[in-house]
């Protein structure tokens, strides 16, 4: 499975901030230094959003500004933190949603596609087939036989009252 959009956006935002703090002589660096000192966490700006991204257990914006790690260390730390947070979020969703109880959690990792979608070609029919298979696997697809049973259970008491 790939990263959710929100996690990918946070990752891109943190990478942009890292590239700003790596170039001390630029205007962006000076603006970052000023705004980090002045801006409130409730403001709606780029640097206040950086300060709010503490969910990934990374160093704070100030700590990164004071002593930025090397590029390789930063990429490894960022990827690991975002991946761990994403997997933890998936685990919470699996526990909350009964339709996900049959998912094999042993192979749950970021960057790996579920084997159901591995052989799907990019055409309309294969995509529709894959969606149907996913619904069958998660138990959210109602078969016609189940629908008839459900309808008869609902309608039978109503018909006997007439």
Outline the fold blueprint.
Elements: H1 5-21, H2 27-38, H3 46-52, H4 61-66, H5 71-96, H6 115-118, H7 124-138, H8 144-161
Helix pairs in contact: 1-5
Gist of the model:
The protein is mostly helical and 162 residues long. It has helices at residues 5-21, 27-38, 46-52, 61-66, 71-96, 115-118, 124-138, 144-161. 7% of the residues are buried.
Terminal-residue CA separation: 53 Å
Task: Give the strand content.
Answer: under 5%
Please, how many helices?
8
Count every beta strand, where a strand is a DSSP E run of 2 or more residues: 0
Rg from C-alpha positions?
24 Å
What is the arithmetic mean of pLDDT? 81
Sequence stretches where pLDDT stays below 50 over 5 or more residues: none
**Secondary-structure element series:** HHHHHHHH
Keywords:
single chain; 162 residues; mainly alpha; 2 domains; 8 helices; elongated
């Amino acid at each position: 499975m790939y990263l959710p959009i929100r996690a990918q956006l946070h990752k891109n935002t943190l990478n942009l901030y890292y590239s700003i703090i790596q170039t001390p002589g630029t205007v962006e660096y000076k603006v970052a230094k000023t705004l980090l000192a002045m801006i409130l966490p409730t403001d709606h700006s780029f640097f206040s959003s950086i300060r709010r991204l503490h969910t990934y257990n990374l160093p704070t914006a100030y700590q990164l500004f004071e002593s930025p790690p090397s590029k390789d260390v930063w990429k490894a730390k960022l990827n690991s933190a975002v991946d761990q947070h994403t997997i933890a979020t998936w685990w919470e969703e699996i526990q909350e949603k009964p339709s996900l109880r049959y998912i094999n959690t042993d192979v749950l990792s970021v960057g790996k596609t579920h084997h159901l979608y591995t052989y799907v070609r990019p055409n309309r029919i294969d995509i529709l087939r894959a969606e149907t298979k996913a619904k069958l696997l998660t138990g959210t697809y109602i078969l016609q036989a189940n629908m008839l049973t459900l309808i008869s259970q609902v309608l039978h008491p109503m018909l006997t009252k007439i």
